Amino acid sequence: xxxxxxxxxxxxxxxxxxxxxxxxxxxxxxxxxxxxxxxxxxxxxxxxxxxxxxxxxxxxxxxxxxxxxxxxxxxxxxxxxxxxxxxxxxxxxxxxxxxxxxxxxxxxxxxxxxxxxxxxxxxxxxxxxxxxxxxxxxxxxxxxxxxxxxxxxxxxxxxxxxxxxxxxxxxxxxxxxxxxxxxxxxxxxxxxxxxxxxxxxxxxxxxxxxxxxxxxxxxxxxxxx
Length: 225
What we know:
Elements: H1 10-23, E1 30-35, H2 39-50, E2 54-57, E3 59-64, E4 67-76, E5 79-82, H3 84-90, H4 94-116, E6 128-132, H5 140-150, E7 156-163, H6 166-173, E8 178-183, H7 203-216, H8 219-224
Helix pairs in contact: 1-2, 2-7
């Protein structure tokens, strides 16, 4: 599977990814969860294509102290994934790690309250959960999201991204029910390299996309979300 790169922006990537996901016979009932914040504009396109409800998984990357963009793990809900090998190789202390975990946990809780607006998280038991992000580099954030969702006993978990590294897509396909990826360019570089516009997604944009999805949802979807 391949598409011309770069994508114009996350919304275009979401429309293209949505068309591909809709082509698959993914069992219902379905729900699309975007990894905050960058995955939500992409997830909105997938949810629209499937006519499925949209919600979020608040994931926070655990960045290396002196190189924050380099992930040594991630947190989602009460789930933590850590790359123990990387931490030992680069010499991150236990104290440094715990400080980062505490900081990112506090930010995750802030976003959870903001995006939920008093609503409960959706019931995922027995549903097909489609996890969407704007791309996969190491896959650490998506791995945390998968493990978090698995605790809710879904019928199936599908990972869907517009672009990703071959290694991350292959690894996650072995963990989730499937990994749908439109493009796996090599060498991969970074996710943002494959977008013309990769501006940071704001809290307000996430809130707007979630509200638009709720307004368009069918009554039966609202009843189970």
